[in-house]
Specification:
- The structure is a single chain.
- By secondary structure, the protein is mostly helical.
- The chain folds into two domains: about 260 residues, no CATH class; about 120 residues, Orthogonal Bundle (TerB-like), CATH 1.10.3680.
- The chain is about 65% helix and about 5% strand.
- The protein has 19 helices and four strands.
- A four-stranded mixed β-sheet has the order 1-2-4-3, sandwiched between helices.
- α11 packs antiparallel against α12.
- The longest helix is centred in the middle third of the chain and has 25 residues.
- About 35% of the residues are buried.
- The protein binds zinc ion (ZN).
- The site of zinc ion has 4 residues, from α6 and α8.
Length: about 400
Amino acid sequence: MGKSYLDPTIPLQKEMGVQIYGVLNGSTLEFIRQECEGEYLDDCAKEHRERRGMMIEKNVVPDIYKLCQQAKDAIGFKQNIDFYLVSDTDINAGSIESNDPVNHPHIIELNAGLVNLMSKQELLFVIGHEIGHLINGDGQLKKLAQFIYADKEDDDIPDFVSNRLELYDLLCELGADRYGYIACGGDLKTSILVIHKLAAGIDLTKMNISVDALIKENQKHLDYFMGSNKSVGSTHPVHPIRIQSLYLFSTAESQDQLEKSMEDIEDRLNKLNEEDATLNYFYAAAGYLLSNVNVEASTLQKQTIVYRVGGKCWFPEDFINYVIENKNIEELYHDTIKLLVEMDEENKLVMMDFLLALAFVDGGFTKKELDFIYDFGHEVGYSDDMVAAYIKELLPRNFRLNLTF
Ligand SMILES: [Zn+2]
């Protein structure tokens, strides 16, 4: 047989998947979600058949049918998939995972716009990419999150969740790309060209560009945008990360070497993620100090700190432990207050809000906690009256009944 490949699994994707599944209570809610989903897949299949397009069958569209099978074989994926050609001019493809592929095959849809535009080799990459999503179960977490937050506006989904899903989405793409690469026979150039076409909307196939030139150009692009201070996702194109990740996968000589070289990408992503690190340092330091003014920090208080830090950091407990073990907490607390106030006056309220949330979360707002908050207020230039007024302002969102009888 042909080439052999490294294991396409991305450990960080797995780790992040487990973490998100856990925080979303996946072990119980996923069951409920599946119960509620019911005949959803059948409905999708029906809708495809009747309204939007056609099933890719051997005797109808033999060429594309063959490609789909070829991609499956190259990857070694045995479960049932129904492939559909959808009459949509958007250049796109998608997959819908089945929990029971024996009776309800997975679905992969290829838009007509895509099929028209791509060579056979390129289509193999696209189909392989979609199969990769099925193999990794990428749709599941998104469906679970949608199930839980169905009636909420995007703004209502906590940062803790959306921040993780954003990274997870990106990692899913990186993971799926590896299967696309395998499906097209380890053809790096084709893979990169498809990513350009799909993610950047640029067709470079007709220009005679070498793989080396593509990689070099990409490296520059990557350095440029990873150097600027913006968040992952919407504001930044993800295709340079996808191309770099695929390049590493195709050139690494061992699994170890691959994981090592991927760390660079992960570190860069993490730096983007932690652009507001000052606030996180404040949360960690202030959280530690305030939650320990009583006998010791309560579980609820610890969770509140993790939750806040986790809005901008993927492994908040690691971060908090790192801060507690390595920093002078008192110093860090005062330094970060100063920095944050210099950055933005509004941060005074952001900090105060956190302190109040922490004081109330376990029900008992104690005198010691109150003193701590007054000291904080004086430190940022508030008079006693102002501290009281701000506490009143922030009270409705933070108040909890004291049920510690
Ligand atoms: Zn994808």
